Amino acid sequence: MGSKRMKDEQSEGKKNKKKKKHIFLKIFLVLLAVIVIFAGVILGYGYSKLAQIKHDDIDLNQVEVNEGVEEKKGYRNILLLGVDSRENEYTNTLSDSIMVVSINQDTNKVRIASVYRDSYLKVGNKFDKITHAFAHGGAASSLSAINTNLDLNLKEYVAINFDVVIDVVNAVGGVEVELSSEEVKYINKYIKEINNLTDSKTTQINKAGTYNLDGAQALAYSRIRYTAGGDYKRTERQREVLEKAFAKVKKMNLVQLNNVATRILEEVSTNISVNEILGLLSQVASYEIEEATGWPFEGGIRGYQPDKVWYGAPVNLENQVKLLHEFLFDEEDYEVSESVKKISDDLIKKTGYK
User: Fold this and answer.
1) DSSP label at 267?
2) What is the pTM of this model?
3) Least confident of 5-14, 182-191, 227-236
4) Disulfide check for 215: which of 161, 170, 247, 288 has CB 3.0–4.6 Å away?
5) Domains, the chain, ranges and CATH?
């Protein structure tokens, strides 16, 4: 009976993950825009522009990996972080987007798994929201938390400041968006907040219609979540903004690309070397985003409020990790480590969710 239920859960998980698109595709689209910019910059300017990126040689000895978990042969796996930072500082801040980007080096197919920021997982010595890992110890802490909870062996990361969205949209001359009356009802609250945080002076919008949104307005539009459709509709807005910005970036000439690069490269932090970035760029044209999903998979997370704060508690972490490895690496019979089994058992004891 237990075996049958597990198979049913796995089957349902497969169906759900194929239906569900990654809710944080906006950040990956920004990364793609950055890569396109890199390509143009390299053709015209060489190493000099790439040197603007904040390079962080984190101590890989401080990055935890569960015993017996090796790097996946034939894959390049990178942790992509969308960091809620306003001054290009990558310390003492949250990682609101957390994505595992897996590149199959034989096929150049890319699969993306987003770890929901409120997921209740083991961060250091206690259970906490996974978004807090970055604030506790930067990229090394985030890599460790993802590795130990998900049985991965990640060593590379890219962190992107959310202000990249504003800068990219401004650099491409804005994006055209049709606003409904319901969206207008909420957008100005976010415009005001962004103006206060960024010292921008973006004007508010008073009625429904089609507008060429500047960076702050586009970010405000992307943050609307209380209309019909809730969070799902919000992610549609996010994708719309970045897809339109990305389409404009692709049409830019070298001079224009250089101007965009000058504005955003300082908002990227990574431990990937310039030479390695160049190596990735040589393959960019052949990369294909095969599939993207959110993790834990649909039905695999439930609300948990032990201290009046909402956490997303994974239901049966052990099974969720198995499904993740099947999604990323086509491993149908993955056996989780003893460490993940222990975390999974502890979660069941704490939350009561099996």
Assistant:
1) G
2) 0.76
3) 5-14
4) 170
5) 2-163+262-351 (3.30.420.590), 173-251 (3.40.630.190)
